[in-house]
Amino acid sequence: MVAVWLEMDMPTTLTLKNIPDVVYARLKTSAEAHRRSMNSEAIVCLEAVLLPARVAPTERLARARALRDALPQGKFLARDIDDLKREGRP
Question: Which phi-psi region, left, alpha or beta, contains residue 18 (left: φ > 0; alpha: ψ -120 to 50)?
Fold first, then answer.
């Protein structure tokens, strides 16, 4: 028989070292602005980056259609598409 506590998701502790001062300051400012502890704010930031929100297929399709509708009407030539992809790249 397995102990019940072994079957539960247990939170894990993480210690961060050598955090750059500017990152620490921004995290602290953000935590204060959201009325959260530094720990809670760090978790929210990590979740936002590492656990992307799931988007329903219908919502993704609606966004794609909205983007397509925002484009100028007409045909795009392959070279025009290639030029647009390279725009702003070194």
Answer: left
